[in-house]
């Protein structure tokens, strides 16, 4: 199976805020890597799909919330590369389906709902065995898609960046992407993760674990900003939504309110506060997720 990443643009952002701080900023448009397997999820899935194929498994099973970009990407990957997909969704079914789950079903994904207590068993071997009894054999992709093979895939994000930079920034949910960037950079430059959920301190340990599982040194040239979560995962406030709207108006680049909006907001605050030395070249990863934007953020093309 050959999965070749499409070349994606790097766009320089020009803005008085950047000029004043003396820094430069580019956005790596990973959101354009595949029409349906959005952004970082393409890289996280790549070696998992290859492993599933090598193991002769034709079904993929994973876990996620009702708005999970990972479930969305897995469903699309199933269609694109010929796997059956099973999505174990946290919580109650709702009708009509939200756009993420409707898309998953349209891609042929089988959805099953787990109450919150059962969902917590998602890493228990006994529970996974029960699922195998029920659905037959499958390739298991963990919730959020972060495992050693996801880290390996995300190291290739680095190979696809042409522009030289000093700082590489990304949004951080489960930390798999950040771990891949750290491993791919091999200690060069500085990597900044922006946690999009509350209480993100656990992420440092998770990223270290993922690096170790993937056979990478842990390195020290990275840190995670855990302050800019806006109240928690998928939570937002008017100032975040205003920032996202303004950013798209001025720079023509759409951001989502769950991941890339929070990353860019955090970056912007740090730039304004003078936290980057003049001359610093910043590369921000647009990790995708635009299909999960709030309807009120979607500009009409009229
Ligand atoms: C899933 C996702 C992330 C977070 O990636 P992790 O590897 O879980 O940290 C970041 N941005 C977008 C758009 C995502 O969909």
Describe what you observe in this structure:
The protein is an alpha/beta fold. Helix content is 39%, strand content 17%. The chain has helices spanning 16-21, 40-54, 69-81, 99-106, 116-119, 125-135, 148-159, 176-185, 202-213, 238-251, 260-272, and strands at residues 10-13, 24-28, 59-64, 84-90, 110-114, 139-141, 167-172, 190-195, 222-225, 281-285. The protein has a 6-stranded mixed β-sheet with strand order 1-2-10-7-8-9. The chain has a 4-stranded parallel β-sheet with strand order 5-4-3-6. Strand 4 (84-90), helix 4 (99-106) and strand 5 (110-114) form a beta-alpha-beta unit. It is globular, with a radius of gyration of 19 Å. It starts with 9 loop residues before the first strand and ends in a 17-residue tail after the last strand. Bound molecules: pyridoxal-5'-phosphate. Pyridoxal-5'-phosphate is lined by residues 39-41, 69-70, 144, 146, 171-178, 259-260, 287-289.
């Amino acid at each position: 199976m050959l999965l070749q990443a499409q070349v994606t643009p790097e766009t320089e952002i020009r803005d008085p805020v950047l000029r004043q701080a003396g820094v430069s900023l580019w956005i790596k448009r990973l959101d354009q890597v595949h029409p349906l397997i959005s952004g970082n999820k393409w890289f996280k899935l790549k070696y998992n799909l290859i492993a599933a194929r090598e193991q002769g498994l034709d079904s993929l099973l994973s876990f996620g919330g009702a708005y999970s970009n990972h479930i969305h990407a897995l469903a699309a990957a199933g269609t694109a590369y010929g796997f059956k997909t099973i999505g174990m969704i946290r919580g109650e079914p709702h009708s009509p389906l939200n756009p993420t789950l409707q898309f998953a079903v349209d891609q042929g994904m089988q959805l099953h709902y787990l109450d919150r207590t059962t969902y917590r068993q998602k890493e228990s071997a006994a529970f996974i065995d029960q699922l195998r009894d029920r659905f037959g054999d499958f390739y298991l992709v963990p919730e959020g898609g972060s495992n050693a093979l996801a880290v390996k895939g995300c190291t290739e994000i680095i190979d696809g960046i042409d522009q030289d930079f000093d700082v590489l920034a990304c949004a951080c949910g489960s930390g798999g992407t950040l771990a891949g960037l750290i491993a791919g950079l091999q200690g060069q430059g500085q990597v900044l993760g922006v946690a999009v959920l509350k209480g993100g301190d656990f992420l440092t340990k998770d990223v270290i674990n993922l690096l170790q599982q993937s056979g990478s040194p842990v390195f020290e040239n990275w840190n995670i900003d855990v302050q800019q979560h806006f109240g928690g995962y998928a939570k937002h406030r008017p100032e975040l939504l205003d920032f996202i709207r303004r950013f798209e108006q001025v720079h023509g680049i759409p951001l989502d309110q769950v991941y890339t909006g929070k990353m860019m907001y955090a970056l912007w605050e740090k730039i304004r506060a003078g936290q980057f030395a003049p001359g610093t070249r910043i590369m921000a990863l647009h990790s995708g997720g635009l299909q999960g934007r709030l309807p009120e953020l979607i500009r009409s093309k009229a």
